[in-house]
Each structure stands twice: as C-alpha cells, then as structure tokens.
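User: B box-type domain-containing protein, Candidatus Berkiella aquae:
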Amino acid sequence: MNCYNHHDTQAIGLCPACHKGNCRECGSKNDMFSCDKHACIAYAKKINEIINYSDSQIKSTNKIIKKSYITGMLSGLFLIVAGCQFYPDDFSLGLTFISFGVLFFGMPVYSLIAKGYRLDQKTAD
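Assistant: Predicted structure for B box-type domain-containing protein:
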C-alpha cells in the first residue's frame, strides 16, 4: 500500500479515521498517522485518549486485584487461627472456622499460582 498523499512512497501507517495509508513524512507531522484533515486528526486524538484511559484503568484494576488476593489470604489465616482457638472446646465451630479459613486462603493462592503471578511483581507503567 502506498501513501495517500505521496503515491510513490510506501505507507507505514493507516489513518485511524479514514483508513488511508500514510508514509513516514505524513505520519511525523502529527505523530498519529492521521491525515491532515481536521476531522481525521480530531478522531485520532480521541482514539488515543480512549486507549490511554483504558491502559490506566487496566493498571489500577490489576492493583486492586492484587490487594484483594492479599486480603483473602489474610482473612483465611485469621479464620484458621480463630478455628484453632475454638477447636478444643467446640469441635464443630472450630472445624467450620478452619474449613472456611483454608477456603479463603486457598482460593487466592491457587488463582495466583494458576495465573503465574507473583505478589512482588511491579505493575508496568
């Protein structure tokens, strides 16, 4: 595909609005490979804003998910300890607490292992 403006030059990008090919020279004018038309430039800027917003939401969601894993594991440990305290006096109550503790602790751990995540990984910014 050749550039829409320079017919003898190879296109290296497409205008996100009208999907016409643009060469390096045309793309470097506005850093978005959009045509020189006002409508195309405005459309490309809007697309870039949406992409950037989406990326920021994904990063913040990943942080929230990691915090929920940690909260689930801590809740599970608390329930296990509480169940151990009840276990000698009230067998069924202690066993219930321990069971829910193992469940609360095990689910986030299994999920992290299955996805291959590590809690000490930094989120790519």
